């Protein structure tokens, strides 16, 4: 607070001016600065000063009750998420980057709005608009990102005047068409393996072990001989590798065992052991595998072999589907493959067709003679 005497440059008159400043103890950098001038007497200046004090304090309370700008909240959340903030569950750096990117890409209209102004109507308008612009997976990521940022804002005290996440209650009216998953049948699997072996393709051992065990690409990359128990005929899977983060836990973050009871699998592994010599890893780490090109290599080979073009992860689906067709219980397949989500398992049950197998066996719609006549004609008899 200050009352200062000054001389008017135009009139030469002796006057007084008042300045009042108030600083926030809750928000760093927030201050209210109010000024008035032109008072002829000190009493007038003192009276104005009291009014300015009241006005500045009211303005400060009002400013403190407002949440920060949306763009500031997003920036603060991004920094906090990468520094293990106690109010944020642990997220991978890549996930934080994805969330921040998708929010900035689709919620830019909120940047200069106070978070308290982003109500349900504004949030739903954004979610409704992107339904026609982006894929369902990206829409889900956007909503998850908005929710995560708002929840952190509540817990950290960055958001005031808002009680609920504005996306709450929104329901999508568009559903993405379910696509038939990539898969190879048993004949195609055998063709893939036999041809790859016959041409001595360097990736043959990798593809073979993927089809024998259902392990993910990163799990195969990280597999060491010490994890292979020949005595008990088991592979212990507890490590994974990605070209972003290197070695770490499996996707489900828990270990599992994969049986290797088949003579084919045991024989293959023993041959591989001889080839690898003293190398601690079961499979050779090709440079393209390290760079994350496993899917590309397999697709190129499939196209050249006259097989359906499939990605590397499809080999895992082939393994699961064949087990189910061989009457292995789905619960056992889930344990071997490391799935916790029954929805994932249900896809492979549908692919295997075990739920509907035999349903049409007794279906007879044509007269018996007509059916037999058609069957006979197929074999070239009159």
Structure write-up:
The structure is a single chain. The protein contains 15 helices and eight strands. It has helices at 42-65, 70-81, 93-106, 120-130, 136-156, 186-198, 204-213, 217-222, 263-276, 287-290, 294-305, 313-325, 330-337, 342-352, 368-378; strands at 2-7, 14-23, 31-39, 228-229, 234-237, 240-242, 246-248, 256-259. The chain is 48% helix and 11% strand. The protein is elongated and about 110 Å long. The strands form three sheets. Strands 1-2-3 form a three-stranded antiparallel beta sheet. Strands 4-5-8 form a three-stranded antiparallel beta sheet. Strands 6-7 form a two-stranded antiparallel sheet. It has three domains: 2-65; 70-156; 186-352, hpI Integrase, Chain A (Orthogonal Bundle). The chain is mainly α and 382 residues long.
How would you summarize the topology of this molecule?
Layout: E1 2-7, E2 14-23, E3 31-39, H1 42-65, H2 70-81, H3 93-106, H4 120-130, H5 136-156, H6 186-198, H7 204-213, H8 217-222, E4 228-229, E5 234-237, E6 240-242, E7 246-248, E8 256-259, H9 263-276, H10 287-290, H11 294-305, H12 313-325, H13 330-337, H14 342-352, H15 368-378
């Amino acid at each position: 607070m200050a009352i200062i005497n000054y001389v008017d440059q135009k009139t030469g008159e002796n006057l007084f001016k008042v300045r009042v400043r108030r600083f926030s103890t809750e928000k760093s950098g927030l201050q209210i600065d109010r000024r008035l001038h032109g008072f002829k007497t000190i009493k007038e200046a003192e009276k104005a000063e009291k009014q300015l004090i009241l006005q500045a304090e009211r303005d400060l309370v009002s400013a403190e009750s407002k949440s920060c700008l949306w763009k500031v909240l997003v920036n603060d959340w991004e920094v906090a998420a990468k520094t293990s903030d106690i109010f944020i569950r642990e997220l991978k750096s890549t996930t934080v980057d994805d969330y921040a990117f998708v929010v900035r890409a689709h919620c830019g209209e909120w940047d200069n709005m106070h978070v308290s102004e982003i109500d349900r109507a504004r949030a739903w308008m954004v979610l409704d608009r992107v339904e026609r612009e982006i894929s369902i997976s990206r829409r889900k990521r956007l909503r998850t990102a908005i929710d995560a940022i708002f929840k952190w804002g509540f817990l950290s005290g960055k958001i005031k005047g808002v009680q609920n996440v504005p996306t709450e209650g929104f329901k999508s009216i568009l559903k993405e068409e379910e696509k038939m998953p990539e898969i190879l049948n048993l004949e195609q699997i055998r063709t893939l393996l036999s041809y790859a072996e016959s041409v001595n393709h360097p990736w043959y051992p990798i593809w073979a072990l993927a089809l024998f065990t259902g392990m993910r690409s990163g799990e195969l990359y990280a597999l060491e001989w010490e994890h292979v128990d020949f005595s008990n005929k088991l592979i212990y899977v507890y490590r994974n590798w990605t070209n972003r983060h290197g070695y770490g836990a499996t996707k489900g973050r828990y270990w599992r065992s994969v049986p290797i009871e088949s003579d084919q699998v045991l024989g293959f592994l023993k041959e591989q052991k001889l080839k690898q010599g003293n190398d601690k890893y079961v499979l050779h780490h090709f440079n393209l595998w390290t760079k994350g090109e496993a899917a590309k290599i397999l697709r190129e080979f499939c196209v050249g072999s006259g097989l359906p073009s499939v990605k590397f992860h499809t080999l895992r689906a082939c393994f699961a589907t064949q087990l189910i067709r061989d009457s292995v219980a789905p619960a056992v397949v889930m344990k071997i493959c490391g799935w916790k989500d029954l929805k994932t398992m249900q896809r492979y049950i549908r692919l295997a067709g075990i739920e509907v197998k035999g349903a049409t066996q007794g279906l007879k719609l044509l007269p018996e003679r007509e059916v037999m006549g058609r069957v006979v004609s197929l074999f070239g008899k009159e």
